[in-house]
Design a protein that fits this description.
- This protein folds into two domains: 223 residues, Rossmann fold (3-Layer(aba) Sandwich), CATH 3.40.50; 102 residues, Magnesium chelatase subunit I, C-Terminal domain (Helicase, Ruva Protein, domain 3, Orthogonal Bundle), CATH 1.10.8.
- It starts with a helix and ends with a helix.
- The protein has a five-stranded parallel beta sheet. It has a two-stranded antiparallel sheet with strand order 3-4. Strands 6-7 form a two-stranded antiparallel ribbon.
- The radius of gyration is 21 Å and the shape is globular.
- It is α/β, with parallel strands linked by helices and 327 residues long.
């Protein structure tokens, strides 16, 4: 796949995906754009929003238009790690008459895994996803089982209801490429949502891409050339958050207890590549990196007591970081 074919193919695929998703999801253009960037960059996504904003519907619709295997895991306080990854059962071998252990795959063995309300389950069960998200495999009974490529974890959580929840540890948050925030729809969008969902006709999106095409586009994104100044800007944004280092900017020193690691710069650059191709450009620029600063950094920053006392949220902190690290 040469450069022109790569660009044309991704632009066409991105447009078709938006069209088909738009048959079910009204508005949310920014959210869909960030989901597509993560999809073609091969990253996992954590979606946050209050109940009723179609987080689960959006993810299931994306799976429908991608002709990929899909599984939904409803996270609850009594969910066990084996309920996600699978478990070994003692089985009778008819040919030998002996009893042997056989591994039964859990719902994580799918191309698209919806981890619904991921903060509703204890850390032990949350941790069952760590190896799957990072290594794309599951280890059980001393044996490793590879997950089917492509593999995406799309998790949801409610940011306002914290009673009976278990916040994700920083190590697991860092495995998510993006933290995407879903807000209330605009007035006209909400009117369209109500009209579309209270009638007798149900929209049916069509399949756009299969697994082979998704993997080919992911490979194309990794092959995109990047200018050194763009790479350096992504690294500078990540380093600017590291409290106590010589590169930390004033807002980080003032409002953060902990900053972003190298994975943040990797996600910024890889996301910038995918964003550029989806917009028909052969290589990303600094504007692409800065456009993804919020979804990449917001869940990797740990604010301190000073930020909480002055009610400075992470969105504002990222804005200040962008001001301090000029383009």
């Amino acid at each position: 796949m040469d450069s022109n074919d790569r660009i044309d193919g991704l632009v066409r695929a991105g447009g078709d995906l938006r069209t088909e998703i738009g048959k079910v999801i009204v508005g949310q253009d920014r959210v869909i754009e960030e989901l597509l960037v993560a999809l073609f960059a091969g990253g996992h996504v954590l979606l946050e929003g209050v109940p009723g904003l179609a987080k689960t519907l959006l993810i299931s619709t994306l799976a429908r238009v991608l002709d990929l295997s899909f599984s939904r895991i409803q996270f609850t306080p009594d969910l066990m790690p084996g309920d996600i990854t699978g478990s070994e059962v003692l089985d009778d071998d008819a040919s030998t008459g002996q009893r042997v252990f056989r591994f039964i795959k859990g719902p994580v063995f799918a191309n698209v895994v919806l981890a619904d309300e991921i903060n509703r389950t204890p850390p032990k069960t949350q941790a069952a996803l760590l190896q799957a998200m990072q290594e794309r495999m599951v280890t059980a009974g001393g044996k490793s089982h590879e997950l089917p490529p492509p593999f995406f974890v799309l998790a949801t959580q409610n940011p306002i209801e914290q009673e009976g929840t278990y916040p994700l540890p920083e190590a697991q948050l860092d495995r998510f490429m993006f933290n995407v925030l879903i807000d209330y729809p605009e007035t006209e969008e909400e009117v369209a949502i109500v009209e579309n969902t209270t009638g007798v006709h149900e929209a049916t999106p069509e399949v756009v891409l299969g697994a082979a095409e998704v993997l080919a586009f992911q490979d194309a994104v990794h092959r995109v050339p990047v200018a050194e100044n763009v790479t350096r800007h992504a690294v500078a944004l990540a380093r600017a958050t590291r409290v106590g280092s010589a590169d930390a900017v004033r807002p980080a020193q003032e409002y953060l207890a902990w900053g972003a690691g190298p994975r943040a710069a990797q996600c910024l650059l890889l996301g910038a590549k995918a964003r550029a191709l989806l917009q028909g450009r052969p290589t990303p620029d600094i504007a692409d990196v800065r456009a993804l600063a919020h979804p990449v950094l917001r869940h990797r920053l740990v604010s301190n007591f000073h930020a909480e006392a002055e009610e400075v949220d992470k969105e504002r902190i990222v804005e200040m970081l962008l001001d301090e690290v000029p383009a």
